[in-house]
Amino acid sequence: IFGGHIRSVVYQQSSKESATLQPFFTLQLDIQSDKIRTVQDALESLVARESVQGYTTKTKQEVEISRRVTLEKLPPVLVLHLKRFVYEKTGGCQKLIKNIEYPVDLEISKELLSPGVKNKNFKCHRTYRLFAVVYHHGNSATGGHYTTDVFQIGLNGWLRIDDQTVKVINQYQVVKPTAERTAYLLYYRRVDLL
Known about the structure:
Layout: E1 4-12, E2 18-24, E3 27-30, H1 39-46, E4 50-52, E5 65-73, E6 77-83, E7 85-87, E8 93-95, E9 105-107, E10 127-137, E11 145-152, E12 157-162, E13 165-169, H2 171-175, E14 182-190
Parallel strand pairs: 3-6
Antiparallel strand pairs: 1-2, 1-5, 4-5, 6-14, 7-8, 9-10, 10-11, 10-14, 11-12, 12-13
EC number: 3.4.19.12
Pfam family, one: UCH
Catalytic activity: Thiol-dependent hydrolysis of ester, thioester, amide, peptide and isopeptide bonds formed by the C-terminal Gly of ubiquitin (a 76-residue protein attached to proteins as an intracellular targeting signal)
């Protein structure tokens, strides 16, 4: 249900590219950069080609290589993990409290897909609808409190769950971030499976 695959390709100067498939159950999205304001920005950053520094061959010769990750297989339920905890050089861990916009309806663009599957995935296989958001409250990675908003099908609406407190909320409250309520995990279901 949650399993997908990413394709990781390493490009080396005057050498054949090397590709590996890796399974994932959550897509971990780095949100550190000031340029990243939305889930779409974070997804585009995930698949951006990056240069790998200090790579040497067996003959100790330094060569230029780069790496790119693309989505090979999308799961029925896509879990996006916004990486809010960042390790500092001093050894501590700090929480990134920044607003990241996320839509209720998310379409995975073809540019995020591996070349071999770009044209095999119909739009309905790349379109997802949000059904749950997990929030972390607090500033520390070693403590805090978790709450969740869940779309309840029978109610045809959203519930906010905080320990034993459950209350009905509207969709606007789910997608509108606040300083004390920043999304940590986003759960999307493929629309053709609704």
